[in-house]
Amino acid sequence: METVQIPDxxxxxxxxxxxxxxxxxxxxxxxxxxxxxxxxxxxxxGDVRRFAKWAPPDVExxxxxxxxxxxxxxxxxxxxxxxxxxxxxxxxxxxxxGLPGRSAVARRWRSSPRLAVQAAGSGLRRLHExxxxxxxxxxxxxxxxxxxxxxxxxxxDPALGPEPPIDRLVVCHGDPCVPNxxxxxxxxWSGHVDFDALGVADRWADLAVASMSLGWNYGDGWExxxxxxxxxxxxxxxxxxxxxxxxxx
Length: 249
Ligand SMILES: Nc1ncnc2c1ncn2[C@@H]1O[C@H](COP(=O)(O)OP(=O)(O)OP(=O)(O)O)[C@@H](O)[C@H]1O
Ligand SMILES: [Mg+2]
Hints:
The protein is of the alpha+beta class. The chain has helices at 17-23, 63-73, 107-111, 114-130, 142-148, 150-154, 203-218, 223-230, 236-248; strands at residues 28-33, 39-43, 50-55, 82-87, 92-97, 102-103, 169-172, 181-183, 189-192, 199-202.
């Protein structure tokens, strides 16, 4: 997620047969290529606007885990509603209803990011306040992340250091990089997408990574605006720990 992965208009992206079938004659627009080789297509418009997230078999994208988490979170916060899941020999897919708005890294926000950064901060705060820790069946603790990470199990990082005491347990987004925040055209936060890692953890696990992703997408100098919009003073030790953990897992 370190680079912007919005396809250019003249990029030729092959459309998998399953996605053509799901579109059923509606317009198909590739909107996102992830670093692993997954592709998200936007299908149709208006009431039937929907998104098909597709991955070939060798790509590690947990679409089943994401669908489970979306079904759980939908009761509390604006997240994509699951419409369909499936698989064939070519790949797997998850189809969700379109949420209003566009990614916070759409071209207009990249050139003038202040409103997008503020929405990322205040939107993350709203997500953390809306999702109930006591009801959440998913875990994103430090131990669970190490256990699930193939990178960590092959080469544990001795420089990670000890886990800081929990500041506040919340249900974290799990991939709070700024492209996963959606905004209306006026800059209002409209929701989050991309929930395959959602789970209970210290809020700094999300805050550290969300703030780090601002630099990847908008350049330096936006972290203060982000933390102010969330309503928290930066905690350098926890930020450093959770950024190391992100890199190590
Ligand atoms: N239901 C939806 N409503 C609106 N936009 C959506 C929806 N689903 C996906 N998108 C758009 O498609 C993009 C890609 O979706 P998503 O982030 O889930 O894919 P990903 O491949 O897991 O991304 P990443 O590279 O962050 O891992 C999002 O940033 C968002 O702009
Ligand atoms: Mg994403």
